[in-house]
Design goal:
This protein has 206 residues and is of the alpha/beta class. The chain has a single domain (4-13, 28-88, 128-203), classed as 3-Layer(aba) Sandwich (Rossmann fold), CATH 3.40.50.1240. It is 40% helix and 14% strand. The protein has 7 helices and 6 strands, in the order E-H-H-E-H-E-H-H-H-E-H-E-E. A 6-stranded mixed beta sheet has the order 3-2-4-1-5-6. Helix 3 links the parallel strand 2 and strand 3. Helix 2 packs across helix 3 and helix 4 (99-106) crosses helix 5. The radius of gyration is 16 Å and the shape is globular.
């Protein structure tokens, strides 16, 4: 039985391009982001992956990426579930601010702690630990059972909600997760064992 799980960070958004903290704000994909989403679908098709389920967040940049990728695979009919528990980390008071301007205001070290630490949230926002606390139960209750039944599943979400999943799939620690990044529009294909641990991993770069 194939137990396939694919993680895909949404294509470049307008605020990614402008270097703004995005979080739960809802900017659209850029032209580059649209191309990344289509290319992701084409690479998945070339890799021979098909899906029975797709899961995405409540934010339009992830939903648009899902639609474009599935259309590029020739599989627009794949059922897609949208849920806010897969949303990006809430950046609170940083949302909408330029990252360089935030560093000038609070200092490089403090902003980097907010961005990369495991358990220190920005003012009014979520830490990665907070994000994991909502993503992990959703994964265990809704996504993982599909995969373990042999129903290949695509998860299109965000840098931090997917990094939360990497803490489970790749057994990253609060210390090691700080150095892990996910590129926009690059699918990561996992094959799971029956016990839900990772058997293999393939990154489908251009």
């Amino acid at each position: 039985m194939d137990r396939i799980l694919v993680l895909l960070r949404h294509g470049q958004s307008e605020w990614n391009l402008k270097n703004l903290f995005t979080g739960w704000k809802d900017p659209a994909l850029t032209d580059v982001g649209i191309k990344e989403a289509i290319a992701a679908g084409q690479r998945l098709k070339a890799h021979g992956v098909t899906f029975q389920h797709a899961f995405t967040s409540a934010l339009s940049r992830a939903q648009h990426t899902t639609t474009l990728a599935l259309e590029a695979m020739g599989a627009p009919e794949v059922p897609t579930t949208r849920d806010a528990r897969l949303n990006e980390r809430d950046y609170g008071d940083l949302s909408g601010l330029n990252k360089a301007e935030a560093a000038q205001k609070w200092g490089d070290e403090q902003v980097m702690i907010w961005r990369r630490s495991y358990d220190t949230p920005p003012p009014g926002g979520e830490s990665l630990r907070d994000t994991l606390a909502r993503v992990l139960p959703y994964y265990n209750q809704e996504i993982l059972p599909c995969v373990l039944r042999g129903e290949s599943s695509l998860v299109v979400a965000h840098g931090n909600s997917l990094r939360a999943l990497l803490m489970v799939l790749e057994r990253a620690t609060p210390k090691t997760i700080t150095g892990i990044e996910l590129d926009t529009g690059v699918p990561v294909v996992y094959r799971l064992k029956a016990d839900s641990t990772v058997e293999s991993k393939v990154i489908l770069k251009a």
